[in-house]
């Protein structure tokens, strides 16, 4: 078997076009233009590229985006004051503090300070709790992107055994929560660095989501024939980007697989636009509730 390749670029493009259409409709009805404020602290080159790409996507979709760029020496109090100012600014609908933050800044304290109604990353504990209770406000962008890819690709999750590798707050934990929630209805196993014999769990997976950040960790013979393989990893090895899955052997046995690059990666930004549009709509009192 050779797997169907799930084209994240194309699905992301479609998702971004929907966000652009939604933004235009909101502007026509209310004059409101969705506005994302991004905060970048320090000089991490990868973070700078990610934030730039988020800004470009906003502008292409007709959103407003502003970048607050602060030096690595920024104190926690100063960053907290910026977040509070963005919370209070009624012209800002979404706030994104790019992670990781420099050492010496308490990430939890900063993320907890973001107004939940503007938390388009879905990292605030109130939004995490709402997701766990099955009444989400904002879904974290990467796992929400994976769910959209599965849906658009016609991949059924109900009753399937989904194995997620990685227990990060950004991907692994919310991914497991989304797959298990009513409507998705998968049976979920969450594996992590202390799991014994991860390969044995992977071989039992109908849907395998790799989100641990180790290049080509998942071997081809860990993939059950006909399984769906979702690779969330983006690892730089030399001058190449590779995922957390050993792609070629895995693609020989899977029924569907996401490539790296061009798989899950583009979906993260597309879902950020969807969340920012939702925030702008909610804050404009047009959410129908
Ligand atoms: N760093 C890596 N991924 C993300 C993300 O989705 N959001 C933010 N804010 N920072 C990140």
Please describe what this structure looks like.
By secondary structure, the protein is an alpha/beta fold. It has two domains: 31-116, Rossmann fold, CATH 3.40.50.10860; 141-266, 3-Layer(aba) Sandwich (Rossmann fold), CATH 3.40.50.720. It has ten helices and eleven strands. Strand 5, helix 7 and strand 6 (187-191) form a beta-alpha-beta unit. Helix 2 crosses helix 10 (265-283), helix 6 (141-152) packs across helix 7 and helix 6 packs across helix 10 (265-283). The radius of gyration is 19 Å and the shape is globular. The termini are far apart. It binds guanine (GUN).
Summarize the structure.
By secondary structure, the protein is of the alpha/beta class.
Using only CA atoms, what is the Rg? 19 Å
Q: List low-pLDDT spans.
A: none
Domain count? 2
Span between termini: 48 Å
Largest sheet: 6 strands, parallel
Beta-strand residue fraction: 15-25%
Mean pLDDT: 97
Order of adjacent strands in the largest pleated sheet: 1-11-8-7-5-6
Oligomer: single chain
Task: Provide the structure class.
Answer: alpha/beta
Shape: globular
Helix content: 40-55%
CATH architecture identity of the largest domain:
3-Layer(aba) Sandwich
Number of DSSP E strands: 11
Bound compounds, each kind once, are: guanine
- CATH topology descriptor of the largest domain: Rossmann fold
Number of helices: 10
Order of helices and strands: EHEHEHEHHHEHEHEEEEHEH
């Amino acid at each position: 078997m050779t797997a169907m390749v799930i084209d994240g670029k194309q699905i992301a493009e479609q998702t971004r076009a929907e966000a652009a259409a939604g933004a235009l409709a909101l502007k026509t009805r209310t004059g409101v233009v969705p506005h994302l404020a991004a905060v970048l602290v320090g000089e991490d080159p990868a973070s700078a590229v990610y934030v730039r790409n988020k800004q470009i996507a906003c502008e292409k979709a007709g959103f407003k985006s502003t970048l607050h760029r602060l030096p690595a020496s920024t104190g926690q109090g100063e960053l907290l004051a910026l977040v509070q100012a963005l919370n209070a600014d009624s012209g800002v609908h979404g706030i994104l503090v790019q992670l990781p933050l420099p050492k010496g800044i308490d990430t939890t304290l900063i993320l907890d300070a973001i107004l939940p109604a503007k938390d388009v990353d879905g990292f605030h504990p109130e939004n995490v709790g709402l997701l766990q209770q099955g009444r989400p406000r904002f879904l974290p962008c990467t796992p929400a992107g994976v769910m959209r890819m599965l849906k658009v690709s016609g991949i059924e999750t109900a009753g399937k055994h989904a194995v997620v590798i990685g227990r990060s707050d950004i991907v692994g934990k919310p991914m497991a929560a989304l797959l298990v929630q009513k409507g998705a209805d998968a049976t979920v196993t969450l594996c992590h660095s202390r799991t014994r014999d991860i390969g044995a769990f992977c071989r039992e997976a109908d849907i395998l989501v790799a989100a641990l950040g180790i290049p080509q960790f998942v071997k081809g013979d860990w993939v059950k024939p006909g399984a769906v393989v979702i690779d969330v990893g983006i690892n730089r090895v030399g001058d190449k980007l590779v995922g957390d899955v050993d792609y070629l052997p895995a693609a020989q046995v899977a029924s569907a697989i996401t490539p790296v690059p061009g798989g899950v990666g583009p979906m993260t930004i597309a879902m950020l636009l969807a969340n920012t549009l939702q925030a702008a709509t909610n804050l404009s009192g047009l959410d129908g509730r």
